[in-house]
Structures
1.
Amino acid sequence: MYKATLLPFVLFSLWNLTGLGQGQTQPALDPQTLVQDAIQKQRSGDLAGAIPEYQEFLKLHPEATAIHSNLGAALAGLGRYEEAIAEYKVALKQSPRLPSARLNLALAYYKMGRIPEAAAQLEKVHAQDPSNRQVVIVLGDCYLRMNKNPDVIRVLAPEAKKYPDDLAIAYMLGTAYIRNKQVEPGQVLVDRILRNGDSAEAHLMLGTAKMNIQDFAGARDEFGKAVALDSNLPEAHVLYAQALHLTGDSEQSSKEYKAGLAQDPYNFEANLQLGANAREEHDYERAEQYFRRALETRPGDPGVTYQLALIDADQAKLDPARQKLEALVKEYPEFTEAHVSLSLVYYRLKRPEDGKREREIVQKLTAQAQAKQPGAKQQ
Amino acid sequence: MKLTRRDWIRLASSCGAAQLLVPRLVGQAANGQKSEALFVEVPASASGISWVHENAMSQSRYLPEALGPGCAFLDFDNDGWMDIFLVNSGPSDFWTPTKPILNALYKNNRDGTFTDVTEKAGVGGAYFGMGVAVGDYDNDGWPDIFVTSYGKCILYHNNHDGTFTDVTAKAGVATPGWTTSAVWFDYDNDGKLDLFVCSFVDYSGVKKLECGNNQIGRNYYCVPRVFKPTASFLYHNNGDGTFTEVSKGTAIEQALGKGLGVVATDVNNDGRTDLFVANDTVQNFLFVNRGPGANGRWNWEEIALQAGVGFSDAGRPRSGMGLDAADINGDGWQDLFVANVDHEMFSVYQNNKDETFRDVAQENGVARATQLLSGWGMKYFDYDNDGLVDLFLANGHPDDMIDSYSMHVKYREPLLLFHQGADGKLHDVSADAGPVFHRDFAARGLAVGDFNNDGAVDVLIGLNGGAPILLKNNAAKGNNWLGIKLEGGKANRDAIGAKLTWTAAGKTRSRLKNNGGSYLSSHDPREVLGVGSATKIEQLTIEWPKPSARVDKFTNLEVNRYVGIREGGEISELPGPKR
């Protein structure tokens, strides 16, 4: 599914390049030859050779929107996404409705794990060209990763009707339904996938459903089958890792998380869990690296921000910890664990009154949670 | 090759230092000879202990069924040999036994066997028993027995003739609800033992509560999270055989918990005994004793959160069950331990000497070794008499059906033994500690005591729905020791709160005589001071707790014997190993 989305990096760039000669000024030092050579190199896969020629050309013709886009594609092809993004942005500034540059920008964000930024760009591309199925699929995946399940349903439900045999769409939409507690339509999609035989997607969805009902052992078995059938299936390693963790196999779980990260370095869950493991082992530097990456996928995520605050607290960096925790409890006033840690940090900062105030909040939140338990309702 | 769970735990806790310990502990193994187990199970056929715990497990899975039993070492007849008390379940509002279900008191026959004297002693119980706390509350020199339960507690007064009298009503300690661990200690330093009783959850009216079917379609034991928390109880000893409940208006009453374990210790070295309480699914409590307060109320301050022992380091309450306190690193300050449920890891709290603690479970290898285990009974003690405090853990998952839906967490779990190395860290030596460490149990209570008076502290473990395990300690051979039974005069007779400091072979160590610890259980009141290869104790100092505050000093004490020391300095020989 994701492999197909990578193709546009080159394809869209070349489409734009085709229009380059029509209306561009001829460079004095034979820029035509320069750019044709660059294109040839890019086509043959010599991206490193193409890049300086594009850059040379752009010194002469910085207004060449398509070349900025092509340079972006070459840079992205070498994994130099930050530079690629800069080029795409120049192209879009010059030509805001250039769909290829926007899609390429979105894909660069996507590859960097900057999922919310990718989704924002993809929404614009999708609005311009609603028929582009690849865009819809990647957009749906972004929303799935961001846990924005209603948005997944919004963009993919119409596609599922149009393409009932597309298992990728069925899988993502079904997962979103199940996560969104809409079991019935989710089940319909599971059945659709199952009709196609013993597929990795089907096991992944069944596993997700079992996770939702806390059948962790059942989920673990389903995810294991999914990984065995298709080890490249997105999210499969990470979901398997989660189920393994919940059924007590931490060692194998860690391996699967790492396999998930090898597939997608910006996978949120994998970065979060591996970061937490590293923090438990007091390897704060590695933990922080994982958490920072997780934050790139979900900026401002309270769980990750909390972990970063704990790293500060663990290292006796009490003021940075306090600042993070204060911001967290301000935005999430019912985040009990953050109140616990903030109270502790205040006490360590010799601010007992503030510590006591936070402690009272903890007690209040704990009592509220307890009151919702069935044991309280019975009496 | 199939990797067993034991193998996995050993691999998971792989620690270079632990490997280095193996040749020292089981040196013969390297030469191809059979290594000797550190602890050896004494079978019922040898000990005569035929009692079996009845857990009353029902189809409905009422939670009290899953929590017992506690156990104790005590010398009820004052003959110098440790007897054994075992707590059983009994009638309750959810169960009517079809045959009498009794606690058991076993008298030590001084030859490695025991005789059941329960009936004569009159300590069979009447309720759904949980735990036991032994203490001489009336300072008459004879240990009394307090039994907690789901129902009412019972206080058995020792009649000095092998029998006991139920004095619960007269004493005013019936304590309704669901009580678990209890501890005798002298919080106001008046020389009389007071009593703290942990209260678990409010189970009244919810006994029919079903938490739904589990993944195999059967009722399972509710997670205690669903039940309302309760306040524990503190009884002040009035000195006339009665007690007054004095927690009202104090932090003890205000702190609603789900108490399972308690230890009485002094975390800030101020001479006042504090209380550390392990709670299940809510934060632990550390009640610091601040002395007399206003309006005649005692001043207790609950400081677990700010002390860093209330929650996990990620701010979450854990399922605390067993716990203990001891000065692990020999710095003169009490460190703490809490055994939690699987995936929460156990806590090893090092005292920062400022009423705060730091969890060093990760550094000690305890965190990894306990990741998949649920701990109940446990004790910090020097099992090999080398002078350093070690650790024994008894484990078992509370859900008897967990095996059906968890690959790695089991209902029956292995025992764990940690040895403190010269590096000051606790190393998991279970794999080489003997066959009993390769078996799995539904362990609950754990008591330590030297039942054969050889100076090596043995272990007794209560199993839920099973026969207890008596483990004879073989690990202390070759190391010397002195066993001391302290007898307070002005201080409480059991000398809870006394501090012992001894010097042997130039090394000075100290120990605070805490009380309680473990889970539902009570321990040998004697203190065994391990001195390694030293052949005498050059100096021993005993600081008696207030109101005495007397300091007694002794020099050049012979080792490998038990002695009684009275406040004031009188020493007497007690039964010990044959010479």
2.
Amino acid sequence: MKAHALLAMGLLLWAPCALAVDSTPPLPDPVLQQRYLALTHELRCMQCQNEALADSPVGLASDLRRDVRELLQAGQSDDQIRDHMVARYGEFILLRPRMNWRNAWLWSAPALFMLIGLIIAVRVLRDRRRRVDIDESDADVEPFER
Amino acid sequence: MNRYLLPLAAFALLLIVLIVGLKHAPEKGVIVSPLLGKSAPPFTLPDLLDAQNPLRSDALRGHWSLVNVWGTWCEECRTEHATLLQIKQQGRVPIIGIDWKDDDARARSWLADMGNPYDHVGADREGRVAIDWGVYGAPESFLVNPAGTVIYKHVGALSPQIWAQEFLPHLL
């Protein structure tokens, strides 16, 4: 019973986050609206932190959506708008981090691991082939060894 | 022996990377402000208590200031208020308030009831100035030097300890 009540309370706490939150009318220009949707999905809500601006019901998110709309209508490019946000809130506001010297090693990690895997695979295969070769050359001499 | 050496070395390396990463990780939930070391963003706001005398960012020039972002909807700000009054009493720095997305009347009665620690309070009704300052949750406090450069930022309620340990050393 108690558990049920707790669960219900927990779910209620989440309820505001589940609603469709951006109730502003779409921008008249469909291209701008498309860019607006893309940008608000790749910028972080700094209050709900793991949500995008587009999905967050808090006041700060709607203020930041307003700013994105205004900057778009002022003719700014997507990169200019991202820079505008980063200048205020830091790289953390970008849900898709940019590559820079500090995180370059992280970006290169998949390629690096792929390379390591390939080297290991080649060595294992070569090793196995050599063993098979030896087995075959030995076969005539000592057929009952194994 | 040899066949375990390489994986072991790789594992040790991974451990070192993870430990270094954890040691250097910023405090959980606190975002380092890109504003630190940069000029305070310029702004003009209507003064909450004196309509004739708008609050301009020029007010931050020529002396150290504490810029405090607050709102009557913010419970932590109520906790913090006593500390702000103490800082005011010490008289080391003027406190500039930014009343963030608030109801003016409610904000005035908050200051009338609990005391006013601010030299100026700007009413940021649309929340634009707060965004320029990179504010993401009240209360937030900034220490600005006489040249108008942001030196330090604290997210969350101030306490006498935080003031003494994190702010005062900059003023010496």
